[in-house]
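The passage that follows is intended for readers who have already worked through the single-chain material. We present the inputs for a multi-component assembly, then the predicted structure in tokenized form, and finally a short commentary. You are encouraged to pause after the input and sketch how you expect the pieces to fit together before reading on.
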Amino acid sequence: MTTPRVGFLGLGEAGAAIAAGFAAAGASVRAYDLALQDPDRADAVTARADAAGVELADGTAELLSDRDLVCSLVTSDVAVRVAQDAAPHLGAGQVYADLNSTEPAQMERVAELLGPSGAEFVDGALMAGVPGPGHRVPVLMSGPGAERAASWWAQLGGEVDVLSDVVGAASVVKLARSLVVKGLESLFWESAIVAERYGEAERVLASLGTTLPGEQWNEFAGYLMGRTVRHGERRAHELDGVARMLEAAGLDPHMARATGARLRTVVAGLGPDATPASLPADPAGLARAADDDAPAT
Amino acid sequence: MTTPRVGFLGLGEAGAAIAAGFAAAGASVRAYDLALQDPDRADAVTARADAAGVELADGTAELLSDRDLVCSLVTSDVAVRVAQDAAPHLGAGQVYADLNSTEPAQMERVAELLGPSGAEFVDGALMAGVPGPGHRVPVLMSGPGAERAASWWAQLGGEVDVLSDVVGAASVVKLARSLVVKGLESLFWESAIVAERYGEAERVLASLGTTLPGEQWNEFAGYLMGRTVRHGERRAHELDGVARMLEAAGLDPHMARATGARLRTVVAGLGPDATPASLPADPAGLARAADDDAPAT
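Having made your guess, compare it with the prediction:
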């Protein structure tokens, strides 16, 4: 089995970390990033490519001319545009994996755009943060090209779970899972805020340990609530995608919408001094700060 | 320490189970239930009292005339009315424990109604189903009479966690905890329903085990989702109380309202043949049945 030639559309933090792992495993890795056209950002991309041991292409056409596997890792708002630009330069025998964090409907749209090219499409979902594990990050893939992409991934030392040939399957698992985790985070907040009016936030979190499986619920709640402090706006934004996914499936996004709304009220109420370390030792302070009505103090 | 004389206002399933335990432990236990005035229901109450070894009083006044501890265990919609009827017959030295599943504001209202009587009030929360454990059910108490009620409870073989002398503390813990558990149940449903459109409901539930503490998440999700099937309407109704609690505290009940709404759509979509045993082996069937748009088939 020959080593695959891999191309990256987008060389941000995630793309660079995976590309570096593939390059270190002996693959030919080339990348192109739209930021190369921006004089203010081009240098940063070039530095990232150098650090990753990745060659840069002059444009999409050049990049795609000889790649076996193309990975799209851009920001979710430009994922469709990048696929549109790529489509004319792709052909049969190539595999195009969209690894962006988007909802199933957007994966289906990208698959449709690439259809005429003859390239096989992969709906891919990165299931954890990439910095750290790099190309060993857990990945789910579905769609017609998933098996081929997964075998190349394995050849380079990564591991992919292939779900089915249904485009949308990988991204629905990622977002549905995200709904539960972020929804739970919002439930902890809403419960803690109201319980703290009676001085009992910590007791609620502690008592959940007697009901839910596992034993570290107080800690886990603190961890999740700390995530709101650090990444609340981004997490709320991700829930907008989950809500769109439900709507596209003809379902009312009750929990998804409420989760996004709750995370946003918490973020709005948290002052810059609120840190995860203050949790759950001082839920009272955070509960006051997260009050829907009171502005942050 | 003399054995307390205990009175029960309300001798439904929960009241009878606790009363039976107290009677068996040697307490003098008497009860009165409004259903005794209804010819169609009086016989059932009498039979329940006989089975529990509990004497029946002729009315509220007689019941309360010599009781140390009075436990109100009626339906939540009549808890305030029952307290109103009791107030003129209570006096200093007596303890009145409202053990109904109501929100803190309602406990505060009952406390206010009983204030002039001189009886000490207890906000009590039963933290599990009573049939089975009986008077050994986990109980939280707060309010001025909590310590005395708890020591009587202990004398009779039960165990009470006393939180504080703040009326509302026990009920806020119960409802805030309930919000997390039922909210999680709704998150499982919403996630499973949308994921099953792509054939991946089980994978989402299974994959949560890699993130959440503990290891039996697939089973726990199945258990909670089964609760929706059996008790969804009652659970949604409880969430209405949670939402009122948040509103009374000046907070938007984002998650509480969404949880109630999601449970109701699931209940509406579940046919009479849906059983917990079909979970998670057949989430597809339940997901189809729980579709927001499609009526139950």
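Commentary: The longest helix of chain A spans residues 217-248. Chain A touches chain B through 61 residues (CB under 8 Å). How closely did your sketch match?
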